């Protein structure tokens, strides 16, 4: 299937620049909107996370920041040259996706839009270079520190925001697309080039994970759980080689790409062993639970506290 040092709050100049690009103004504070937001019907509360093990890669302060704020910047995970090789491995699949999008009616499939935003699913089962990164010991350490001693790769996809794309990806939680229990898993957003305000880096709502999964609504640009504003949000500018890790419950969005270059990112998600996807209509009870243990693409990355590697691709 192919289909910045520590980031601070978006500066006034950065926020103004993005709002001009969107043609909008910030009128609603996201923290107030978060408190007023309706919960997903299956969200009956988020139980306390089990005790986390002694961190191996992150500092205690970084783990605390993640627990309290729902996100943390992880500097210097990878050599940028290695990410160049990952991007070169993904590029052919991205081109196939874009070619496919150009052929379908309306030029889009779900959130992917021809010549604007492409989503290539599961590079880790298509290319060994991507597989090696998805199960890299550095990411195993991050997953261990933020989830616990038994973790599987849940999902991986490459998202390319193409040049001069004025659209935002709306505020959403990853658990708003497919409802996983436990609700909280880990997303590691790895830019393959420097991710900046100008090319569409990720924004997060600090502390937005605490209420659990919110009700989401369909839009032309994807699921949305909060109004489109950046007031009260943090823009995380991430140099290539670093990553931003955030909870599946943290509302996040990406801004426009107003540059001449592609903003490419490899998005890796890790869930505690035993996690399940709930299926069905939110207005009623789930009709089935699907274990997140597909043998082809959801191999363990941490097992009994130790980093493990999956079998190589055939």
What does this entry look like structurally?
By secondary structure, this protein is an alpha+beta fold. Helix content is 22%, strand content 26%. The chain has a single domain (12-43, 59-307), classed as Sandwich (Jelly Rolls). A hairpin with a 2-residue loop joins strand 18 (300-303) and strand 19 (306-307). The longest helix is centred in the N-terminal third of the chain and has 24 residues, at 80-103.
Question: Number of DSSP helices?
Answer: 6
Q: How much of the sequence is in beta strands?
A: 25-35%
Name the helix and strand elements from N-terminus to C-terminus, one letter apiece: HHHEHEEEHHEEEEEEEEEEEEEEE
Ends distance: 15 Å
- Structural class, from helix and strand content? alpha+beta
Using the alpha-carbon principal axes, give the shape. Answer: globular
Radius of gyration: 18 Å
Number of domains: 1
Number of E-state strands: 19
**Roughly what percent helix?**
10-25%
CATH secondary-structure class: Mainly Beta
CATH topology: Jelly Rolls
CATH architecture: Sandwich
Q: What is the assigned CATH homologous superfamily? A: q2cbj1_9rhob like domain
Low-confidence stretches: 1-26
> What integer is the average pLDDT?
91
- Summarize the main sheet: 8 strands, antiparallel
């Amino acid at each position: 299937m192919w289909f910045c040092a520590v980031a601070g709050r978006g500066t006034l100049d950065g926020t103004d620049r993005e709002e001009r690009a969107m043609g909008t103004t910030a009128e609603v504070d996201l923290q107030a909107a978060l408190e007023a937001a309706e919960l997903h019907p299956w969200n009956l509360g988020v139980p306390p996370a089990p005790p986390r093990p002694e961190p191996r890669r992150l500092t205690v302060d970084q783990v605390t920041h993640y627990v309290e704020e729902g996100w943390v910047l992880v500097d210097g995970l990878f050599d940028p040259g290695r990410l160049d090789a990952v991007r070169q491995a993904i590029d052919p699949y991205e081109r196939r996706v874009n070619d496919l999008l150009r052929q379908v009616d309306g030029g889009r499939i779900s959130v992917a839009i021809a010549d604007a935003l492409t989503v290539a699913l599961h590079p880790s089962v298509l290319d060994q270079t991507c597989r090696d990164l998805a199960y890299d010991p550095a990411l195993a350490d991050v997953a261990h520190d933020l989830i616990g001693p038994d973790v599987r790769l849940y999902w991986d996809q490459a998202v390319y925001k193409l040049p001069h794309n004025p659209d935002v990806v709306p505020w959403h939680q990853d658990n708003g697309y497919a409802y996983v229990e436990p609700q909280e898993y880990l997303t590691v957003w790895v830019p393959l080039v420097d991710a900046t305000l100008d090319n569409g880096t990720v924004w997060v709502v600090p502390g937005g994970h605490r209420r659990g999964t919110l009700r989401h609504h369909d839009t032309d640009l994807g699921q949305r759980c909060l109004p489109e504003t950046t007031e009260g949000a943090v823009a995380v500018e991430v140099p290539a080689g670093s990553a931003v890790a955030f909870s599946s419950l943290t509302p996040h969005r990406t801004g426009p790409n107003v540059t001449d270059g592609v903003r490419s990112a490899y998005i890796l998600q890790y869930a505690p062993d035993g996690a399940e996807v709930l299926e069905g209509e939110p207005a009623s009870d789930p009709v089935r639970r699907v274990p997140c243990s597909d043998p082809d693409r959801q191999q363990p990355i941490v097992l009994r506290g130790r980093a493990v590697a999956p079998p190589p691709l055939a």
